[in-house]
Design goal:
CATH topology of the largest domain in chain B: Cytochrome-c3 Hydrogenase, chain B
Radius of gyration of chain B: 22 Å
Number of helices of chain A: 20
Largest sheet of chain A: 5 strands, parallel
CATH class of the largest domain in chain B: Mainly Alpha
CATH superfamily of the largest domain in chain B: Cytochrome-c3 Hydrogenase, chain B
Radius of gyration of chain A: 31 Å
Number of domains of chain B: 2
Number of strands of chain A: 21
Helix content of chain B: 40-55%
Number of helices of chain B: 15
Shape of chain A: globular
Helix content of chain A: 25-40%
Distance between the termini of chain A: 94 Å
Distance between the termini of chain B: 25 Å
Largest interface: A-B, 47 and 51 residues
Strand order of the largest sheet of chain B: 1-2-3
CATH architecture of the largest domain in chain B: Orthogonal Bundle
Largest sheet of chain B: 3 strands, antiparallel
Oligomer: heterodimer
Order of helices and strands of chain B: HEEEHHHHHEEHHHHHHEEEHHH
Shape of chain B: globular
Number of strands of chain B: 8
């Protein structure tokens, strides 16, 4: 031990006169770093209340609290953070599908009352609500998978118009399970689905490879899942929380995958519903999705149900409206077979008239009316009566009944809904050069946007913002479709309206003008007294919350009743009518006992 | 065998071991609880001592004050939810366990092939920063246990500057929760490298001053040289790793022996010392501070500035990993840490076991060394063995 070592520690004394190595204790507020994980903030307008933050929180520090009424795509719930449990890991922020949740860089908060350390960020106002600094979700680190497993499609695209085969090929097992694994099970889709299908449950079952469980979940409230799995308008995917910052779950394709796993559904579906309807009979007029739903769920409960369908095939618009490259006939027949196997009696080519309806009111305990919209709306332009101007709905029915439909070489389809797209794609497959003329902008088109893209890839032209002026006859049976451009004007609070730009006329020489601007109800077959009682101002039917019309025992649903005009809404009406009929006939208490 | 029968088993006869149990009590023997509330103890543990004068006759260690059942908790949580748990297995140095969790599950899931280059560098950076800050803390703590207050103040100040860098990079000063599956959670901030370099320069500038207070101090040398020597024969017998092993002159380091992350591309020395006493272990730590600074500077130089910092992750709420088992290891500041990880194809860990150096150091070595030790050396010995109790009772 040297003297040097003895003296060495005394070098620290130099600090008594020089600048110290330590820093004085800070008595002023020191802000956290720019990405500090401090108190939570939440943009409540951006938040959709999906609850994924609560699901990932391993401490259970986040509860979803009701703060507002639920709306489409928003549960009305907002996260409440309990700082007695929170460990500031910020997984909630990194998983947040909407990106609304964040953490401020403020970390100091002193209070005598321990209960205040539970608050709903964004709702309970805090001084750090507007902090721009702190931990935020970043694109490079995502705990959910925003990218959808691509659906295999018929390729190349040019070949699609040469065949009526299905364009969408369906997921393989591996693809379906990978897609199902993207679900965060928030359940926003359930609220958005008109029939409130058990979507997170069946997606979880698909993910786990339990397809029989999935199909049973699906059939619990959807009697036409294979149809829905192929052509549903999918309100569910519109609200999917993953869809806020990514591709929504392919809920429709997953349902399609599950139902396609079984050729004989009766072998996997449970049929143990209490037979409460034995001895009761119900007539269903119109074999569309709403009518078939009503018939199926009544029949499996023991009711004697007869479906009366005017066309040679049930299915309604899903049969005669939806082209076979989207929804092949065997798929429909498979589902209808299950219905007939389980007790639904179907009478096709049977159009009910007024006298028969009167007799039905005597013979049956309840009647469900779901005859849909079949009367085409008129073009309201000069020349609409010319030969060659035809309603899309008639063209679709003729085509699906196997009649020859002449579309010529060049066709213009007026309208922007799914019917317009179907008419256009069918005409394309019949060999025509097709143009769709729509009066608003492309983003306003009510048709499914995937369908619009598909039709464009198949060579369908699209003209937007135009107003048909008149149709004139040209030599050799051709027609001159004359239209004027429109500009979009916003009036009041509604969506922008197209307004004609005066003085400009465009000409399009075509063989056919197919009009697809909507359909109206046609209830002339109803007895006058009943019709007077139950129809409303626009010619449809008004129902109460049980699906019953003003006429006792007469229920209704589908496009006649709701303004959504899609299959799944009609099915929801059907389910409402099922409950309504059970209650009306007073057999419902047995359900509770059973 | 019930717990009440436990004391009747041969070899576990705790009651008769205690002085009060028998009929004869040695009047010179005093029973003393050292900890759990004692500034000289390392963390939340205690040592039960039987003293004669100021000499320890024997003693046993007690843990359990910090038991939160991490390993069992992780079996009940989804993979992503285990991630905020592991950092708590060693409070002072959370990054090693974070890395072990991420790398073991990445290996079993096949995600390891997708971890971006930049993420590898960032992981290496934060692991080395972590080793540096812990070593600084322990170096100060070492002399603190001997009554020297100045050096700990200096080292803790330097460590706090490093914590500023952690805060800037990870959003947290102590629990970083930074290394996630597939990479890391955030990229470097603008100007981070310059600020970290400045801190490194400051540490390097002050090291000679610290040397004068610690290694060069005659008092420190007198208190530590030849004190609490860990016999070299124990190394293989009880699996000693880290600075304790290197202080025996054995150049063993997981970073060199089982290379991981970017360590094979970095130039660094394995610091060793001779004597296996407290002084040797302190000397190893002192040298490792310089090596860590050297390594971090290289990382900041060699690291790519562009590119992703995390792989594209599957949905973490439904992520499942095929059945498998693996052992991953990394060099923490205390020695080799490893995870035995077992998965069963579900969305949760089937079993995880942490192999930490603290068990060897704080329980096995310490209990063997206690007989004959002076009580004044106990704190210094425990710190020199660098104990992290939550890692023992994970």
């Amino acid at each position: 031990m040297s003297l040097k070592n003895v003296i060495a520690p005394f070098s620290a004394w130099a600090r008594a006169v020089q600048k110290p190595f330590t820093v004085p204790e800070a008595d002023t507020f020191r802000p956290g770093a720019d990405r500090y994980r401090g108190w939570h903030i939440n943009d409540t307008k951006q938040c959709i209340g999906c609850g994924t933050c609560g699901d990932i929180c391993q401490n259970g520090a986040i509860d979803m609290m009701p703060v507002d009424d639920a709306t489409k795509g928003d549960s009305g719930l907002r996260p409440l953070v309990d700082y007695g449990r929170c460990c500031w890991c910020a997984l909630c922020v990194d998983v947040c599908p909407s990106g609304s949740l964040g953490m401020s860089n403020n970390y100091i908060w002193i209070d005598r009352d321990p209960d205040v350390f539970r608050y709903i960020p964004g709702v309970d106002k805090k001084e750090w609500d507007d902090d721009s600094k702190g931990w935020r979700k970043e694109e490079g680190f995502n705990l959910v998978d925003p990218d959808r497993v691509p659906m295999p499609m018929m390729m190349p695209e040019e070949d699609r118009v040469k065949t009526w085969a299905e364009v969408v090929l369906g997921y393989s097992e591996k693809e379906a399970r990978a897609e199902a694994a993207r679900c965060v099970e928030c359940g926003l889709c359930v609220a958005a689905c008109p029939v409130h299908m058990h979507i997170p449950e069946y997606i979880a079952a698909i993910r786990d490879g339990q397809y029989d469980v999935a199909v049973n979940q699906i059939y619990d409230n959807n009697a036409l899942p294979e149809m829905c799995g192929k052509v549903c308008t999918r309100h569910c995917e519109d609200v999917c929380s993953i869809g806020v910052n990514g591709d929504p779950l392919a809920i429709r394709w997953l349902k399609r995958f599950a139902t396609e796993q079984f050729s004989d559904l009766s072998a996997v579906l449970s049929h143990d519903q209490p037979q409460i309807g034995v001895g009761k009979s119900v007539a269903v007029i119109g074999g569309g999705p709403g009518g078939l739903t009503t018939a199926f769920y009544l029949a499996i409960r023991g009711f004697k149900v007869t479906v009366f369908e005017a066309l040679p095939q049930v299915g309604g618009a899903t049969f005669f409206g939806i082209p076979k490259y989207r929804f092949p006939l065997p798929s429909l027949e498979k589902q209808v077979k299950l219905m007939t196997d389980w007790g639904v009696e179907i009478k096709t080519n049977h159009k009910v008239e007024a006298d028969e309806f009167k007799q039905m009111q005597q013979d049956y305990d309840a009647i469900y009316v779901g005859t849909g919209l079949l009367k085409p709306s008129s073009l309201r332009a000069e020349g609409e009566d010319l030969p060659g101007v035809m309603p899309a709905i008639e063209m679709l029915i003729d085509h699906h009944l196997g009649k020859t439909v002449e579309v010529g070489e060049k066709v213009v389809v007026v309208g922007g809904g799914n019917v317009a797209i179907d008419a256009a794609r069918i005409s394309r497959r019949l060999g025509a050069d097709v143009t769709i003329a729509y009066r608003r902008r492309m983003e306003d088109m009510p048709a499914d946007h995937e369908e619009i893209e598909d039709s464009e890839s198949e060579g369908v032209h699209l003209i937007t913002q135009n107003i048909p002026l008149r149709v004139e006859q040209l030599p050799e049976g051709k027609l001159d479709f004359i239209w004027g451009p429109a500009e979009m004007v916003s009036e009041g609070g509604g969506r922008p309206r197209p307004k004609l730009v005066e003085g400009v006329e465009n000409h399009l020489a075509v063989d056919k003008v197919i009009v697809a601007i909507g359909q109206k109800p046609d209830l002339r077959w109803l007895p006058t007294d009943v019709a007077e009682k139950i129809t409303n101002s626009w010619g449809g039917i008004t129902c109460d919350e049980n699906g019953m019309t003003a006429a006792a025992g007469v229920f209704a649903g589908g496009d006649l009743v709701n303004d959504t005009a899609d299959a799944v809404s009609a099915m929801a009406d059907g389910l409402t009518a099922v409950d309504g009929i059970i209650n009306y006939l007073g057999v419902g208490s047995k359900t509770e006992e059973g | 065998m019930s717990v009440f029968d436990y004391n009747t088993q041969p070899g576990f006869d705790l009651i008769s071991e205690t002085p009060n149990a028998g009929t004869t009590v040695d009047p010179k023997e005093v029973q003393l609880w050292f900890g759990p509330q004692h500034p000289g103890i390392t963390g939340n543990m205690s040592v039960q001592l039987w003293m004669e004068g100021d000499s320890i006759k024997r003693g046993i260690t007690h843990v359990g004050y910090l038991h939160r059942g991490f390993e069992k908790l992780m079996e009940r949580r989804k993979f992503i939810q285990s991630f905020p748990i592991v950092c708590r297995m060693c409070v002072a140095e959370p990054d090693t366990t974070e890395y072990l969790l991420a790398s073991s599950l990445e290996e079993l899931s096949g995600l390891d092939k997708e971890v971006p280059e930049k993420a590898q560098w960032l992981r290496t950076l934060i692991m080395e920063m972590s080793r540096l800050q812990v070593t600084l803390m322990v170096l100060g703590g070492q002399v603190g246990t001997m009554g020297m207050g100045t050096a700990p103040n200096w080292t803790y100040t330097l460590r706090d500057f490093l914590l500023d860098s952690f805060e800037e990079l990870t959003g947290g000063r102590v629990y970083h929760m930074y290394i996630a599956y597939g990479g890391v959670r955030r990229d470097l901030t603008k100007g981070f490298a310059q600020r970290l370099e400045a801190t490194l320069d400051l540490i390097e500038e002050r090291l000679p001053y610290l040397d004068d207070l610690i290694l060069n101090s005659a008092v420190f040398q007198a208190r530590t040289k030849g004190v609490s020597v860990v016999p070299t024969e124990w190394a293989d017998e009880i699996g000693i790793t880290g600075p304790t092993l290197r202080a025996m002159g054995v150049a063993s380091d997981v970073r060199r022996d089982y290379p991981y992350l970017k360590y094979p591309e970095l130039d660094f020395d394995i610091c060793t010392a001779e004597g296996s006493d407290i002084y040797a272990r302190t000397k190893v730590r002192r040298d490792e501070i310089s090596q860590s600074i050297h390594i971090i500077r290289q990382i900041l130089q060699m690291m790519p500035h562009e590119g992703a910092y995390c792989a594209k992750l599957p949905n973490m709420l439904t992520w499942t990993i095929p059945a498998g088992m693996t052992y991953t290891r990394a060099e923490s500041s205390r020695g080799e840490m490893g995870f035995v990880m077992v998965t069963d194809g579900s969305d949760k860990i089937r079993r995880v076991h942490l192999r930490g150096p603290s068990y060897t150091n704080a329980v096995t070595i310490l209990e063997r060394m206690l007989p004959g030790m002076n009580i004044a050396d106990l704190s210094a010995t425990m710190v020199s063995l660098q104990t992290c109790p939550p890692e023992i009772e994970r």
